[in-house]
Structures are given as structure tokens and as C-alpha cells.
Design brief:
The protein is of the alpha+beta class. Helices cover about 50% and strands about 10% of the residues. The chain is built from 39 helices and 17 strands. The strands form five sheets. It has a five-stranded mixed β-sheet, with helices on both faces. It has a five-stranded antiparallel β-sheet with strand order 15-14-13-16-17. Strands 2-1-3 form a three-stranded antiparallel β-sheet. The N and C termini lie far apart (about 105 Å).
């Protein structure tokens, strides 16, 4: 019996030893990483560590901490492949471990000379065996009984997370994920833009939240793109430059999206600035505490800062909570939450002090302090906001008491008010959920409220208050000990008072601000979209045009313009009087004299009568043999421009009425060059432009004008100073300096000469150079010192001028200067031409186009870009610039004005009729279409669906807008109200 028991015991010991050894083989590397924490183990390891990294070096060196860390990484990397073979190597090698410490050190270098990877594995094996002996001794001492073995499990599992934390791929840094997500790794200079360490472009915000993360949340843009955009803006890059020449860094975003990120970033900067300003003010007043400063730094919007700052504002009466704190009740309020079991409110009563004379006054003061604490707590505000997000919050508008009083009989002399109320009839009893309200409805309600005609209120369901108060008392603000019923009553009252008096107004302001901000943003986006499409309408080239500003009593003002917009003749004719036949003969004489076949009529007063007059003459073939046609254009802003300083300077000795006719004609010849002279707010596009933030509107409109001008490109030698101001990188001062340089030195012969202009530094040159064109035909027409031959030389041996800060500049023409290729890519363009066997003389030719297309098709754009050490985006720009013909205008594929020869009356319309027309304006509620009947019809928003728009126009920046030719169906004709309802069938190409 004893023998069998001993044999079983021996079997168990042997199995126990095997289990221990298995655990040892799995834990060897983990113990190796942690054994340095023990003094005895570290001394033993130090004898072996030098041989791990020395390689072929002889002797023993003293190792520093950096080298030790490197050894650990190497050990961990090599040991993993050895884990599947622990049992095969364990038994024969274990007895030789004591000798290995002395004998194997001399043979390691020989082994390394023979096979490179093997020495490390041998050293690891030796070290593992020595550690396994030490480990087995520790286990034998600790685990004398088999039942102790399971205790070892948790210790081994606890080391696993430590190993993972030491992996370099698991350590998170902000820049690393950004590099992995970028579409192109071939950035300029071979690397992506990175924020400099310690000098982040958003470090100056100094807030408790991550600006880039908040920016990404607000805009829906990836964080790495936000980092790059912020860096590009800090380096004074313009949006047109970024969109065209830095596409890969902004993830191919369009100008509108980049502008949204810019506005959001500026908003965050203003929030941080306001937070610091408020903190400084409170510090001067001596009321700034660390908690208050922390609350200010946690704010991510101006409304949150106002909520925190409101009780401390100068000029406002002292808040209830501050009065109670000055009476010394703040410790009592804190005690109610922390130690309610020992709190005695009677001890705070002071009979001769107002606010502390009775128990009720003390309780009221404590309640007001608690209400203030609840209202300013971040977690509390987050919770109540989550409740509101799950509820049906509505906004309600009604007629204000002021408007109703002004309608009374005694106030009958004010006849305008009832009329104003009638304009807001849709909103005199209007209710809508905040998630469903339309943007134009928000702006209309705001306008009525500003005029004191409407009263607006945000309604939050009662269950939100009940749930919130219950959560405050039982969860967030629950006392930490037993609280007597009277103390719980104070806490409940504080929660209810905080919600009703502080939190509810804060939530209402927040909803109104969000709705207004969103509506303004969409209205401005609509305005920008309309303006872009109006500016980019295709110009009418090579025609003599007669601009007509219609009128009755003062006559129709005429201006005949040459194909280059020069004024040939101006006059006034009376087409709607008794002598209209005589005026018609006068018109025919002028048109024959100047070979004018194109008439442009402004759409102001007497427009349709004037249109009918010309239609009758065209039907009668009055102008034969001239093939006369006409179009109607929007004349909004022409009268304002005619009396502006710009017009006076351009046409000094002309009557303002005739200037309007000139402006109307030029709007068709070159819409971009003419419309930028007018304040965009007066061009007659968009909705509610006077109800939105004027600063944001001005910034957005200036941005889109700059974008359009840069997008099209400008011939620097013939453009006006006004147009030049809107080129990316230029301003009024630089434009004036360029004009002065041209007057003094003649036309520019190449882009490099721009560096000679005063005030045009390297950054300005970088931003504007790609958008400026040097057309040799223009230079020849202007003349340059009798030099009519401006051929590009094969070798630049021409006279050179020194440029400040950079070598010299040539006086020779460069063919690449008339393309969209940026000067920074000229060397790449020349290498590409050399690669395909082309030359600059072939630019725009069919031969070069065929060579380029075959090369791109055979090799692929990405491969070619890698070969030329550039990005695919830059190479695509180079390809476009080389194959486009000289003088290419990107607007030639856009819509241009419709020229008609007949007119249709509104009485001729009937339901179901299908017509074609042109969009004149788009609003938040629909699009207005001119169908040639004297009154624009409206396509309601619900009829403008994605399936009716071309695929390339379904993005926000290219949606339906002014200038689009559309096919529509008449839905309803209201002759009494002079309204036409249309349904969109399709967009015409």
C-alpha cells in the first residue's frame, strides 16, 4: 500500500514537474522582461546581456539604459519562433546549464560567423535554461502541494498586457494614424505636412479639449485632413491654391468643404479667445477660482461660455447663488452633499443678518447654491441634453403682443403694421419640431421676431424635467450619507429650480442658436453656389453687343460694345412713345453701322415691353440682312455700380444711366470680369442675405469670387485692377503695384517678372503665379519695345534682371506661363515632355495630345508620377496644361445666355405644358426659372430630386443654380397672384 502510494506520489510529482516546465517555457520571455526588477536577477542577467548585441566585437562593454531597451526588443522578437519547441530542447540541455555560463561565451562568436540568425537564438536558449532553473526553484519552494499550482495562472496572465504595451505599433500617437489614412504617400518633397513638435498650429488655443478632434467632429472631416488644413492655413495658403495644387493634402476636398473647415477652425479660435478674455476679466475682479477656470476651458461654444460667465457679468445684479455664498452658506451646501448626517442648519441662523435670520432663509440660500452647482456641471448638462435629444422638442411662433396692440383702432394711423403681419401669416401660429424645421422657416421666424411681429418659444416636454430631477437626486447629486427628509426636500427643490430657472433658458438659447447657425450656413452656401454659377457662365466672345437698359419715360439707354468690351457708341431711344417708328429706324442705322447682331436687354422695368418691341421687328425682318437675336440678363446691381467710384474712374465723363447699359452688355461678354465690380449682395441671388451674419457672408462671397477668378485664370497684361485684386495671393495694394509696374516697364513677358513687383514676396508669388497667364498674342498686340518676335529660345541666353532674394529673372517668354501648371512644377513638366518625346512647341496640338494619352494609358498615371518623383494630382495638372490649346477658357463648357427671337405670353400657359427655360435664382425653398413669359416660375424644393440631376451635379457645390438650362412641366398657373408652379423634368446639356 505504501509502495503504491509512493509510486502514485512520484507519478504526480513527475506530472507536476512537467506542468511546471510547460508553464516555464511559456513564461520565460515574460520573466526575462520583468526580472530586472529584482536585484539578484539583474546581476545574473547582466553577465549575459552584453553578448546579445555585441555581434563580432570582443570583450565586455558597459551598457546604458538605451541599449538595454534595445536588447529586450531583440530578445522578444527572436524568442517567439522558439516557443513551439520547448519540450524537445528542455531535457537534454537542462543538466548542462551550470557549465554554459562559463564555457559557451568563447564559442558564440564562431557560431555567429557561420550563421547570422543563430547566435541570438543560442544566447536566448542559454539564458532561458538558466532562468528555468531559477524559476523551478522558486516554484518548488512556493508550490509544495499540487493544489497550489492554479495560483500561478493569474500571475502569468497579468504580464500579458505589459508585453503588448511595449509593442511600438500599439502605442498611439496623433500623427501615425494620419499617415496611414492618407490617399497618397508621395507628398511634396516626399513627405506629408506634419505639425512641428511643440509648435502645433492649434496649440495656442490652450483649452481642455483637443481642437483637432473637436474640429473633425464639427465638420465630419478626418482628423489627418484637419491637421493638414490647419497647417496650410497657418502657412498663409489660400483656398484656391490648396484646392488646385495641394489636392493630396486635403483629400481632394472642394473649396466649399475647405471653407467649412476654415470657418469651424475660426469659430474654435474665437471660443478659445473668449474663454481667455473672460478668465482674465474674472481674475481682475478677484472671483476666478480653479474650478471656474476649468469650467471655462471645458467650453466648446460661445453659448457655454456665456452660461458660465452670466452670473459674474458687470452691470447685472448679483446672482442668487453669489449672494448666498457671500453669506457663508457654501460650506453648508457642500456638507449637505458630503456629510448630511452631521449637518445642522440651525447653526447657520443669524437673527440680525438678512438672508440668515430664519431657517427658511438658510434653506433657500443653500438651495440656490446647489441649483447653481447643478446648472454648471458638465455631466449634468450632458445628461439633460441627451434627454432632450430623445424627446420631441418643438419651436412655436405666434403674433407678439406689441403687434396686436398696434393693430387696435386707436393706432389705426400706422397702416404698415397690419401689412407686415400679413407677410408673416404662415408663422402667426406655427409649430414644428426642431429636427424638422426648414432653414428658410428659421430665418423667416427670426426676421419676424426682430421686427417685433412674432414671439418665439422653444417647448420641451415635461417628462424631461421629471426624469432630470429624479436623476439629479438619486444619481448625480445624491448625498454621500443619510440625509434627513428636510435636507432631501432642499435638494429636490434645488434640482427643480436649477432646471426651470437656469437650465431651461440655456437649452432654449442653445436650440435657437443651433437652428440659426445651421440656417445661416445653408443660406450662405446657397448664396455662394448661386454666385459661383453666375460668375462662371460662359462668356460671349467675338460679337458686337448692344446693351439695353429698358425704361418708359426716360427712354431706353443703349451702349454698343466691341468684341473686346470697348465702348463704341451710347445713346437714348424712346421705344414706347408715339415716335417709336422713328426710333426703330435710328436703331437699324446704329446696328448696320457697327455690324451689331446681338442685343442684351436688362430685366428691369419695361423689360417685357422692350422685348416685345424687338420681337416684332425681328419677325418683320426689319434688320435684314442682319441676323439679329436678343437675350435677357439680370441687371441687379447695375444702377448701384453706375454711381460707384469704380464706374466713375472707369467711365468719368459718362451719364450714370448710360453706364448701366454698358454694365448690362458687358455682363454677357464676360460675366466674371463685370460682376466682380458689384457688391455680391446686390447681384440678386440667394435668399435672406440681409438676415444672416454679414461678416460670414462677406468672407464667403469674397472667397468664392477669389476662387472663380483664380479658377478661370487671368491674363495679367489686359485684366483690370479690380479683377486683379481677387486673384489668390493678391490684394488691393499688390494689384496697384502690378499696374504701376506695367505702366513703367510695359507688359509682363513671363511669370518670373512678377517677383520684381514691390510688395510681392515669395509667398504671394507662390499663391498667385499658377492663376496668372502670360498670353503672347496679348503682348504682341500691346507691343513691347518693337520686339514682335517672342518665341521661346531653346537656351535661355537673354538679358536677365536680378530679383530680390533669388538669382535673376529672364525677359524671355515661357510657353508654360499660359497654362495652369504652377512654376514649381515646370521642371517636372519638362522631364515629362522629354520622357514622351515632345516639346513645348507642340503644346495644345493633336500630336502632343496623342503622345500624352498613349503614355498615360500604357504606363498609368501613378507609375509615371512615381517615375517623375511627383504626385498623381500634380502630374494630372501638368497633363491638362500641356494638352489644352493656347487661350483655353474653362468656362467654354458652361452655360451661356439664351438668345431668342420670339416671346410667349403668360396667358398661353396651361397645366401640363412642357417648356424649356433657364434658372435665374435658387432659394432654400426652390428654384426660379425664366420660361420667357415675363414672370419666373418656381420649382418647389420637393420637385428637385437627385434622380433629376446629372451625376456630376449631385454634390452640394455643383447643385442646380443660376444659368442651368432645364426642362420643366407647368403644374399650376395663378393669373390672379401672378404665380407659376413648375415641376423639374431634367437638366439640359
Amino acid at each position: 500500500m505504501g509502495d503504491s502510494f509512493m509510486s502514485v506520489r512520484g507519478t504526480l510529482c513527475f506530472e507536476e514537474q512537467e506542468q511546471r516546465r510547460c508553464i516555464q517555457s511559456q513564461r520565460r520571455m515574460m520573466i526575462l522582461m520583468t526580472c530586472n526588477q529584482k536585484d539578484s536577477d539583474s546581476e545574473e542577467l547582466d553577465e549575459w546581456l552584453p553578448n546579445l548585441n555585441e555581434g563580432k566585437t570582443k570583450g565586455r562593454l558597459t551598457k546604458g539604459p538605451d541599449e538595454t531597451a534595445e536588447k529586450k526588443k531583440v530578445t522578444k522578437r527572436v524568442a517567439k519562433p522558439k516557443e513551439p519547441k520547448p519540450k524537445a530542447e528542455r531535457k537534454p540541455r537542462a543538466p548542462r546549464v551550470p557549465k554554459a555560463k562559463k564555457e559557451k561565451t568563447n564559442t558564440e562568436n564562431q557560431t555567429e560567423d557561420a550563421v547570422l540568425p543563430k547566435p541570438e537564438s543560442q544566447h536566448v536558449t542559454v539564458k532561458e535554461e538558466r532562468l528555468s532553473i531559477n524559476l523551478s526553484r522558486e516554484i518548488s519552494n512556493k508550490a509544495a502541494v499540487p493544489g497550489d499550482m492554479p495560483d500561478e495562472g493569474p500571475s502569468s496572465s497579468q504580464h500579458l498586457p505589459k508585453m503588448k504595451k511595449e509593442e511600438p505599433n500599439d502605442s498611439f500617437t496623433f500623427d501615425e494614424p494620419a499617415q496611414k489614412k492618407q490617399k497618397s504617400t508621395n507628398m511634396p518633397q516626399g513627405r506629408p505636412i506634419k505639425l512641428k513638435s511643440g509648435n502645433s498650429c492649434v496649440d495656442d488655443l490652450q483649452m481642455n479639449w483637443d481642437p483637432i478632434r473637436v474640429l473633425a467632429q464639427k465638420t465630419g472631416v478626418e482628423q489627418w485632413v484637419c491637421v493638414n488644413i490647419a497647417q496650410l492655413f497657418q502657412e498663409e495658403n489660400t483656398i484656391p491654391f490648396m484646392v488646385r495644387y495641394r489636392k493630396e493634402l486635403i483629400n481632394h476636398m472642394d473649396a466649399d468643404a475647405v471653407r467649412d473647415v476654415q470657418l469651424a477652425l475660426e469659430e474654435l479660435r474665437s471660443v478659445a479667445k473668449k474663454s481667455r478674455s473672460v478668465a482674465q476679466t474674472l481674475k481682475k475682479e478677484g472671483v476666478l477660482t480653479s474650478e471656474l477656470e476649468m469650467s471655462l476651458k471645458n467650453c466648446t461654444s460661445a453659448d457655454e461660455i456665456e452660461h458660465v460667465y452670466a452670473p459674474y457679468k458687470k452691470g447685472s445684479k448679483l446672482s442668487k447663488a453669489r449672494r448666498a455664498k457671500e453669506l457663508g452658506l457654501e460650506p453648508v451646501a457642500l456638507a449637505l452633499l458630503q456629510t448630511p448626517q452631521t449637518l445642522d442648519l440651525h447653526s447657520s441662523i443669524q437673527p440680525n443678518t438678512k438672508g440668515l435670520s430664519t431657517l427658511d432663509e438658510v434653506a433657500t440660500g443653500v438651495q440656490e447654491i446647489l441649483a447653481d452647482m447643478i446648472a454648471k456641471d458638465k455631466e449634468t448638462l450632458t445628461y439633460v441634453q441627451s434627454l432632450c435629444d430623445r424627446s420631441a422638442v418643438t419651436i412655436h411662433s405666434s403674433v407678439s403682443k406689441t403687434a396686436l396692440k398696434e393693430q387696435q383702432p386707436q393706432e389705426g394711423n400706422q397702416k404698415s403694421k397690419p401689412k407686415d403681419i400679413a407677410k408673416f401669416s404662415l408663422y402667426t401660429d406655427f409649430t414644428c419640431e426642431v429636427q424638422r424645421i426648414q432653414h428658410h422657416q428659421t430665418l423667416a421666424i427670426n426676421r419676424g421676431e426682430n421686427l417685433k411681429i412674432l414671439t418665439v418659444k422653444v417647448n420641451i416636454p415635461d417628462w424631461v424635467k421629471n426624469d432630470f430631477c429624479r436623476w439629479c437626486v438619486n444619481v448625480r447629486w445624491r448625498p454621500q450619507g443619510f440625509a434627513r427628509p428636510e435636507l432631501m426636500t432642499i435638494l429636490k427643490n434645488a434640482a427643480e429650480d436649477s432646471y426651470k430657472r437656469l437650465i431651461l433658458p440655456f437649452l432654449s438659447r442653445g436650440y435657437r442658436t443651433k437652428l440659426t447657425t445651421s440656417a445661416e450656413k445653408e443660406s450662405i452656401a446657397m448664396f455662394v453656389r448661386n454666385l459661383r454659377q453666375r460668375l462662371l457662365m460662359c462668356p460671349v466672345r467675338g460679337k458686337v453687343i448692344m446693351g439695353v437698359d429698358p425704361g418708359f419715360h426716360h427712354g431706353c439707354k443703349l451702349a454698343i460694345l466691341s468684341p473686346t468690351s470697348q465702348i463704341l457708341h451710347t445713346d437714348v431711344v424712346y421705344l414706347h412713345g408715339s415716335a417709336k417708328h422713328k426710333e426703330a429706324e435710328k436703331l437699324r442705322h446704329l446696328m448696320f453701322k457697327h455690324s451689331c447682331q446681338t442685343i442684351v436687354i436688362g430685366n428691369g422695368k419695361a423689360c417685357r415691353e422692350t422685348e416685345a418691341f424687338f420681337t416684332d421687328l425681328i419677325k418683320q425682318r426689319f434688320f435684314n440682312p442682319l441676323d439679329v437675336s436678343y437675350c435677357i440678363t439680370d441687371e441687379a446691381g447695375a444702377s448701384i455700380y453706375s454711381v460707384s467710384p469704380e464706374a466713375v474712374k472707369e467711365m468719368p465723363d459718362m451719364d450714370p444711366n448710360l453706364r448701366s447699359a454698358v454694365s448690362i452688355g458687358r455682363r454677357v461678354q464676360d460675366p466674371l470680369a463685370e460682376l466682380i465690380k458689384i457688391d455680391p449682395k446686390h447681384i440678386g441671388i440667394g435668399t435672406y442675405q440681409h438676415d444672416v451674419s454679414q461678416s460670414l457672408l462677406r468672407a464667403a462671397l469674397d472667397g468664392v469670387v477669389q476662387e472663380c477668378v483664380s479658377f478661370v485664370g487671368v491674363d495679367i497684361n489686359i485684366c483690370s485692377e479690380t479683377l486683379m485684386r481677387h486673384i489668390a495671393g493678391l490684394n488691393a495694394g499688390r494689384a496697384r503695384n502690378i499696374m504701376e509696374w506695367k505702366e513703367k516697364n510695359g507688359p509682363f513677358l513671363n511669370r518670373e517678372q512678377l517677383k520684381l513687383v514691390k510688395g510681392l514676396g515669395p509667398k504671394s508669388f507662390q499663391q498667385c503665379a499658377g492663376f496668372i497667364r502670360i498670353n503672347p498674342e496679348t503682348v504682341r498686340s500691346i507691343g513691347y519695345g518693337g520686339n514682335e518676335n517672342l518665341e521661346a529660345p531653346k537656351k535661355p541666353t537673354a538679358e536677365k534682371r536680378k530679383v530680390k532674394g533669388s538669382g535673376s529673372t529672364s525677359n524671355q517668354f515661357d510657353p508654360l506661363d499660359q497654362t495652369c501648371i504652377h512654376p514649381e512644377s515646370y521642371s517636372i513638366a519638362l522631364r515629362f515632355l522629354s520622357h514622351i518625346g515632345g516639346s513645348l512647341d507642340q503644346m495644345g496640338s493633336a500630336v502632343l495630345r496623342q503622345s500624352v494619352e498613349s503614355s498615360v494609358k500604357s504606363s498609368g498615371l501613378d507609375v509615371l508620377a512615381k517615375f517623375l518623383d511627383t504626385t498623381p494630382e500634380t502630374l494630372q495638372l501638368i497633363v491638362d496644361g500641356l494638352v489644352q490649346p493656347p487661350g483655353f477658357d474653362i468656362r467654354q463648357d458652361f452655360e451661356q445666355a439664351d438668345f431668342k427671337r420670339e416671346i410667349v405670353s403668360m396667358n398661353d400657359l396651361h397645366d401640363g405644358m412642357v417648356l424649356t427655360g433657364r434658372v435665374t435664382n435658387t432659394a432654400l425653398f426652390g428654384a426660379f426659372v425664366d420660361i420667357g413669359v415675363g414672370r419666373s416660375g418656381l420649382i418647389p424644393k420637393r420637385f428637385i430630386t437627385l434622380d433629376k440631376l446629372p451625376v456630376d451635379q449631385r454634390r452640394r457645390s455643383l447643385a442646380l443654380g443660376p444659368g442651368e438650362r432645364v426642362e420643366v412641366r407647368v403644374m399650376n398657373v395663378d393669373l390672379q397672384r401672378n404665380r407659376i408652379s413648375l415641376d423639374l423634368i431634367r437638366v439640359l446639356r
